Amino acid sequence: MGEENEWKTVNRRRSAKQLIPDIATSGRNFRGDHSRETTYFFTDIPDSFGAKAMLNVFQNYGNIIEVVIPAKKDKRGRRFDFARFVNVRDTRSFGLYLDTIIIGRDKIRVNLPRFQRDKGVQLKEAINPMRMQYVMAVLRIN
Q: Which ranges does the record mark as transmembrane (predicted)?
């Protein structure tokens, strides 16, 4: 009976090391108003370039806020990143302008991301007024 209740060693499916994205931000602080920000999705970035190097490249093309390179790769095994620009007047023409970037002998590809965050929507505007009154009443009670 003692043999049945013994501890078993369990092998982990994932490695203990978690993958951490590479993030670089510029010194500018535009965190308050997200309605002026435009995010672009870049693929085919060189393996030797990190987020800080990409931030330096993008500073030549516009007002860049941050660059995020996720640790994972896309389904084709290529690295990708997201770059957030501020004060972009025409997102399509600026995207076409960014699509001309060549690093070394590699051309990077640019697209708008598939999912955009809601621009300029505040919490009070997103909730209907009757629900907002109910939430405020519950908060006053507690």
A: none
